[in-house]
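Protocol step 4 of 6.
Sequence for Pyocin activator protein PrtN (Vibrio chagasii) entered exactly as in the expression construct, tag removed. Do not edit the line below.
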Amino acid sequence: MNEQALKKRIVLVTQQYGAEIPVKNICQRYFNCSVKTANERIKARTFALPAFRTTGTNSGDFFVAAEDLAELIETQRANAKAEWEAANSIH
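Step 5 output, structure tokens:
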């Protein structure tokens, strides 16, 4: 993964959502699921990113770190680009 691209992506994600992002704000756009489904996946530890609560209880919203979301986006982008280049014989 391109470290410079990742750093830019982290800045962009942080500017858009903040350093700690409520899962409810991103689950539909990035994971194509409802808040309920995202919460179920988090509890089952099958969500695509590590999630946490800022409270010391089992209630409250789940959050993810902007760095983790940015890394996921960049990884997916790099994979898609590599597949596209391979399919189009671009080196």
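Step 6, annotate. The chain is about 60% helix and 10% strand.
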